[in-house]
Amino acid sequence: MLAFLVRRLLTLALTAWLATLVVFAVLEAIPGDPALVMLGTSAQPEAVAALRAQMGLDRPWPVRYAGWVGGMLHGDFGTSLTYARPVAGLVADRLAITLPLAGLALLLSAGIAIPLGLFAAGRQGRAGDWAVMAFGQMGIAVPGFWFAILLILLFSVRLGWFSAGGFPGWEAGAAPALKALLLPAVALALPEAAILARITRTAALDTLREEYVRTAVAKGLPRRVVLRRHVLPNALIPVATILGLQFSFLVAGAVVVENVFTLPGLGRLLYQAIGQHDLIVVQSVVVLLAVTVVAVNALVDIACAAIDPRPRVTA
């Protein structure tokens, strides 16, 4: 187990370093002068030169890359030129919205998908199974922002039950804040629930073919009891793996949905920083999202190895 853990941690560190290198290289390859873009083409050359020096663009790229990575390792993500605030503080403020949004979406995804997957497995080849499979196909095919627009049209414009966007802040109370996050969470959860329902169905069908399940059925146990007591606990191992991966995807995938609902989360911060050519913020947020995905994947691997030691043999 120790060797497996060391390999996963080394892989995590290497992947995180490669992520910083790729993000920095891509932003470096973008044509144009960021300082000139921010100030406008009519700006004085002295002002452009001063901004370039403030942004560190007058230094060689290896020096800038080393300073950027070294600062992140010490918790210093730089200072946003647009907001005139440390990037770490901006990110912390926005994560207070994005993380609860992703967590709520994950709960909704599991709450929808696991019962549907078990329902479909218990009715394989019948109308209920086909209905769940159709839901899975639709959820996979339709992107989350379309669900977001449809939810706004139905529940905000037509019914008036929810606000079409915005966030009152946690200081207004948990109930108004969670209400503002509910529709975005549903929009994020539906595509993930469609994938998870299909995986739950497949895992449950595999478990139903096991000898101990056949024995339980032969003893006369009702099918719902067999599904709940014998099938669900064993089918949850692959489902838990996908849930862990989905959380990181939900954090990274909130960029579009947050902009549809005008939520001041991490995704909206990234969108605004791209529009304002605030490269410090763009670099830091993209790397944070990439490292989050890689770290959650590593934690899922480690958790699965602790539960089931078989993957360690070939990992």
From TrEMBL:
Q: What InterPro entries does this protein's entry cite?
A: BPD_transp_1_N, MetI-like, MetI-like_sf
Listed SUPFAM superfamilies: MetI-like (SSF161098)
Q: Does the keyword Transport apply?
A: yes
Supply the alphabetized keyword list.
Cell membrane, Membrane, Transmembrane, Transmembrane helix, Transport
**Segments traversing the membrane:** 95-118, 130-157, 177-199, 231-257, 277-300
Q: Which GO terms describe its cellular component?
A: plasma membrane
Gene Ontology terms, MF aspect: dipeptide transmembrane transporter activity
Is Cytoplasm among the key words of this record?
no
Report how it sits in the membrane. Answer: Multi-pass membrane protein
Q: Name one Pfam family in it.
A: BPD_transp_1
In this protein, which residues make up the domain named ABC transmembrane type-1? 95-300
Its subcellular locations are: Cell membrane
Using the UniProt record, give the first listed, main subcellular location: membrane
Q: Which family does it belong to?
A: Belongs to the binding-protein-dependent transport system permease family.
Task: Output this protein's name.
Answer: ABC transporter permease
Taxonomy of the source species: Bacteria, Pseudomonadati, Pseudomonadota, Alphaproteobacteria, Rhodospirillales
